[in-house]
Structures are given as C-alpha cells and as structure tokens.
What we know:
It contains 14 helices and 13 strands. The chain has 2 domains: 2-172 and 350-366, Glycogen Phosphorylase B (Rossmann fold); 186-349, Rossmann fold (3-Layer(aba) Sandwich). The mean pLDDT is 95. It has helices at residues 13-27, 68-83, 96-106, 120-123, 129-141, 150-160, 208-221, 235-244, 260-263, 281-288, 301-305, 317-328, 331-349, 351-366, and strands spanning 2-6, 31-36, 50-54, 87-91, 112-117, 144-147, 166-168, 194-200, 224-230, 251-255, 269-272, 293-296, 310-312. It is globular, with a radius of gyration of 21 Å. The chain is 43% helix and 17% strand. The strands form 2 sheets. A 7-stranded parallel sheet has the order 3-2-1-4-5-6-7, sandwiched between helices. A 6-stranded parallel sheet has the order 10-9-8-11-12-13, sandwiched between helices. It is of the alpha/beta class. Helix 3 crosses helix 5 and helix 7 (208-221) crosses helix 12. The protein starts with a strand and ends with a helix. The structure holds ligand GMT. Residues 12-15, 17, 92, 118-120, 123, 148, 171, 201, 203, 205, 276-281, 299 line the site of ligand GMT. Ligand GMT is lined by residues 12-15, 17, 92, 118-120, 123, 148, 171, 201, 203, 205, 276-281, 299.
Amino acid sequence: MRIGIVCYPTVGGSGVVATEMALALAAKGHDVHLLSYDRPSRLRRGVPGLRFHQVAVSAYPLFRYPPYDLALATRMLEVREEARVDLFHVHYAIPHAVSAFLARSMCGDCLKFATTLHGTDITVVGSDRAYMRPTRFALEQSDAVTAVSQYLADETRLVFGVRKEVEVIPNFVDTDRFRPDGSPRWHQRADSERILVHASNFRPVKRVADVVRAFAAIQQQVPARLLLVGDGPDREHALAVAADLGCQHKVEHLGMHDHLEAVLPKADVFLSASETESFGLSMLEAMSCGVPCVSTAVGGVAEVLGDTGELTPFGDPAALARAALRLLTDGDLHAQRAAAARQRAVALFATEPVLARYLELYERVLQ
Ligand code: GMT
C-alpha cells in the first residue's frame, strides 16, 4: 500500500506512535510517507520505503497565527500527486482531520483518510468551544475513526456526540527493543537503592510535581533515586518542588532521551501522576521492559496496566507513594508484578498484531 501518515513531531505519544507505525509499515514493504512540520524525534534516517515530507508553514508578518492547517492540506495533496498515496492516516484530530477533509474536498474525493484519536485532542483541546465543531465535523467525515483505548472511544461519543463508529485499536510497543536487560532489581543490589523513573512531555496534565511529591515521601522510607526523562513546560516547577522538599540531590533530570529503551530496564518502578491519560504509552514501554507502573487511576490507564501495576486516586501523591512502597519493600510481589507486566505487554500490545488491525482497517477503507 501507499500510505501517508500525518503527525505532530514533538515529544508526545501521538507522534511516537505515528512514527513507530511508519517505520514498521515501511519494514513490511509498504510505501510510507510521513508528513509533519518537523522531523519527529523517533524518525530514523535512511529507512528504505519511508520518506519524510516537511510541511512548510510560512511566517508572513500579517499572520499572527500561521495557517498550518492550510499548508498541511496542500502538502497532503502534493504527496498524493507525487507518490500516488492511496490513503492518509492522520494522528491527532486537531487540525489534522480537518486538513485531510479539506485536501479530499479540494481534489474531488481523490483520497481517503482515517483518523486516530490519541487523547488530549478529545479530552482537553477538542472540548474547547473553538475547536469542537470543526473537529466533530471532520470526525464524521473521516473514512474511519479509531481511538487508542475504550475510555477514549466512550469519551469521544460523550463529548462530541459523534454517530460514527469509533473503533478501538490500542497503541503498541516493540517488545524486542523494549525488553528486560537483566539489570539487578533493588533487592539484588548491594546498595538496595530503588530506582524510580518518570518519562513524559512535562505538560501540566502530567502533574510531574506530584511525581516528585510522591518520590519525596518514598525516599524517606527507603533509599531511592528518581530519574526524570523528557522535557516540557513544568520541568522547572517539578525541580523546584524537589528542592523545597529537600530531595533535589536524589532527583536526576535526564532531559530528552533518544534511547528510552536503555533507561527503562534499569528502573524498579515507573511513576505517573497524570490528571488524564487516554492510554499512557511510556507506561506500556516500561511494562515491556518488565517494570511495574504505579499511576493515578485515570482515563485508559487501567486498560493498559490490567493488574500488573498499582492505581491510586488522582491528586493524592501520598497514596501514590504508599502504592509504590508496597512494590519497593516486597521483593516477591515486585518480581511477580514485573513478570506480569512484561507478559501483558507481549500478549496484548506487541507491534505485529496491532499493525495487522490497522492494515485491515486500511483495506476496508480502500474497498
Ligand atoms: O500527553 C500528551 O498530551 C500528548 C498526547 C499526544 O497525543 O501526543 O498523548 C496522548 O496520546 C498518547 C498516544 O496515544 C497516549 O499514550 C497518551 O495517554 C495521551 N495523553 C493524554 O491523554 C494526556
């Protein structure tokens, strides 16, 4: 198939999923075209069958807000003409589904498009009045709509009142790349220092300061270190909270990391304090490395973790700390959860079966 994939390049689950999907489809021999306004962070160079098309957005002085959605629609048409793309798969509804609809309308229905909803496009941004109506319209117009969790599919129906079928196709993980590396667990290490990790884009919705608050309580009970991976607007606030709570010397900010698969297997527990999380891709990557997750019970997280991790109420870092301590003071429980996490990732979220579901969907759309 000739497939166009549209995504945001920034650190955030939707761009990661779209890029991994582009790489996996190209590896299967499909002709894949990835469109974004910048090179997505996980995109490798020189991959046969995969081409990157940058969407250039001109900054004319009159434009306080450059019309990216129009530039994207034009680029989609150009790629369609150059590469005879059969179908576009747009990740994140706003404004990608609207641009796809515009591109399709401009060429008299010459292309098909499927929209995958990731989370904040529905739960936060999509329910903003300014974006609500065009997003609902573009979803209705999509040739297929998918959501990454049942929670998000239900939320889409509730918030947008869409009549269209929203099919649930979960995110996936490369279980060969994200795998346990044999690192000793805390109870096997001489210093018995527990390593906790949090990875995200540090947006307010991630509540990274709550992760730090939970960690501050944990390290009072057991020797521990917190690795913060990623970057974003709340980084300074989170580090300031660590300083206020007197644990800054045990919190290490690793910044943007190209090789999360090298960091995650070293962790004993992954911590997440999000206010909303339609899926939680970093947690799936941690599970695949055999790392149990302790998270707020929000959105679709329970669908991902199953009974391999611990869920606590949102906005209660003390509960998060207690749940993590259960895993960090009982070696048998930790070993059992770590093995269950890896098994669940392999059984339910491996790349191949999930990709097969998308290919089936593409075929249905093209028929
Ligand atoms: O976390 C974000 O706000 C970024 C956002 C995105 O689309 O880039 O992430 C969402 O999509 C990911 C991939 O499907 C999910 O794993 C995240 O749970 C989801 N984020 C939220 O729902 C907050």
